[in-house]
Amino acid sequence: HTIENIIDLRILKYSLFLIFVYQEKEFLCRVSDLQDELKHRDHHISELDKEVLTLHENISALTKELEFKGKEVLRIRSESNQQIRIHEQDLSKKHEKELDVMTADHIREKQSILADFNKTQELLKEINSALQVSLEEMEEKYQNRESRPEDLQLIAELKDLIAERDQLIKKLIDDKKFYQLELVNRETNFNKVFNASPNVGVINPLVKQKKKNDKSTNRFVSVPNLSALESSGVGNGHPNRLDPIPNSPIHDIEFNSSKPLPQPIPPKEPKTFLR
Question: What is the Cα gyration radius of the chain?
Fold first, then answer.
């Protein structure tokens, strides 16, 4: 039993040794790998440092170049501004000279136009005065002109027409007087023959009604006429005539009421007048 235990212990030790050896080899391999990687990293860092130095140098060079370019831009800008100012001054002087020349030309042209206008105005005044004189002469000639034959003929025709119209009007007035006198004469004869005395007036409903058998009552009211007015006793010295119309020659004519007037002669057809 003791021998077996010793053998087991040796086996255990040997296995532990083997394990330790294996781990040591593994650790050694790992350490070598790490060392290689460290060397690689160191080399990479050195390269990056070199690159950083190069970039710094480039940046400094670009900064110097940028400053130089900025100074050059400022110089070019100042030179261009100076040239622009010089050019503007030249242009303003040139413009002033051209403006002076144009002003002088405008003044000369204005004076020339005014002179032409004054001459034209004087000429128009002379033409106007001549036309005025000519117009007055023409008006005088027109006022003192002789009558045209057609005007004389028209005047004569119009005079004839007026004379015919006057005759026609006179004849119509005479016929009117005749018919008025005839009407008065016939009305008077009618009243004398039939013993008629028309009651002129209006119907008054307030008047007491007369007896129905009173046949002499005139139930109707006659229309006012000349005979009724004559029977009312008005007139110029005649109880059976109306008041005469002022300045009327009709009522100044004396007529016989018992003797009828002759029959009127119908008027002839009027002549055809010019339109």
Answer: 76
Q: pLDDT band for position 24 (50/70/90)?
A: confident
pLDDT digits (tens, 9 = 90+) for 123-148: 999 999 999 999 999 888 888 878 78
Residue 31: pLDDT band (50, 70, 90) is confident
Concatenated DSSP letters of 208-261: PP--TT-TTS--S-PPP-HHHHHHTT-SSS-TTSPPPPTT-SSTTS---SSSPP
Helix then strand then coil, in percent of the chain rounded to 5, is 70, 0, 30
Nearest to 257 by CA among 206, 186, 167: 186
Nearest to 244 by CA among 258, 228, 226, 262: 226
CB–CB of 218/248 below 8 Å? no
Task: At 15, list the tokens.
Answer: 């296995």
Helix or strand run (H / E) with residue 269: none
DSSP notation for 4-63: HHHHHHHHHHHHHHHHHHHHHHHHHHHHHHHHHHHHHHHHHHHHHHHHHHHHHHHHHHHH
Residues 6+ positions from 210 with CB-CB distance below 8 Å: 217
Rounded Cα–Cα distance for residues 122 and 51 (Å):
101
- Least Cα distance to 202 among 224, 182, 186 occurs for 224
pTM of the model: 0.28
Q: How far apart are CA 173 and CA 160, in angstroms?
A: 20
Per-residue pLDDT, 205: 61
Residues of the chain with pLDDT > 90, as a percent, come to 39
Q: How buried is residue 207: exposed, middle or buried, by Cβ count under 10 Å (0-12/13-18/19+)?
A: exposed
Query: Residue 117's pLDDT band (boundaries 50, 70, 90)?
Result: very high
Q: How big is the CA angle at 211 (ends 208 and 217), to the nearest 5 degrees?
A: 85
